[in-house]
Amino acid sequence: MPRLPEPDTWFGSGRLGRVSKFVVGGRSAGTTRRSLKDANMKSTLLGLTTAILTVVGSAHAQDISSGNAEAGAVVFRRCMACHKVGPDAMNGVGPVLNAVVGRAAGAYPDYSYSAANKNSGLTWDELTLATYLRAPRKLVPGTKMTFAGLSKDQEIADVIAYLKQFNAQGQKVGP
Ligand code: HEC
């Protein structure tokens, strides 16, 4: 079963990076101002970081296949200003997303993709889509998709479950 990426792939130099830098900073400050209070603070920070890592880690180990297509239809409203699905779908600001799950990036006919997308070499399998939808510009720097990304794992899983329903003709096949 496909799973969401591990936290370090997921965040790269993002939020977690900053948290651990903070702790490292605390440690080096300790060399000049060594006191019991500092030591306590350091261990509290360390504990806090461990707690955050645990929470983030377990959230991201969530199964993509836990997605709910009906809930995903609601999430997809946030994509609809730019993307269409269904038998009559036409390219707009973004390309048609019929049968996008499993499709090569930059492959929908008659859509003018950015070079970044077209040359990315990516295939939109579920894991790649999940990474992309979290932070599009992080996975495909230079993409012209200006959407900032979805912050919740469940929303990502749900919208993927929704998109998976549509075949190349835009008909709903399967659950
Ligand atoms: C503000 C407009 C906008 C919104 C909102 C938006 N996108 Fe996009 N999307 C684009 C554009 C533009 C591209 C083309 C990117 C490129 O060529 O660099 C794109 C590309 C994509 C691709 C790659 C398609 C391909 O054929 O390579 C996927 C997948 C995608 N978007 C999914 C979504 C999903 C799912 C949502 C909602 C959660 C969403 N987008 C929201 C504008 C948008």
What's a quick, concise take on this entry?
This protein has 175 residues and is mainly α.
How confident is the prediction overall: mean pLDDT? 79
| CATH topology assignment of the largest domain | Cytochrome Bc1 Complex, Chain D, domain 2
- Tell me which ligands are bound: heme C
Question: Helix/strand-derived class?
Answer: mainly alpha
Helix-strand string: HHHHHHHH
Describe the main β-sheet briefly. none
Instruction: Name the CATH superfamily assignment of the largest domain.
Output: Cytochrome c-like domain
- Could you tell me how far the N terminus lies from the C terminus, measured between alpha carbons in angstroms? 17 Å
Topology, number of strands? 0
Tally the helices: what do you get?
8
Radius of gyration equals: 20 Å
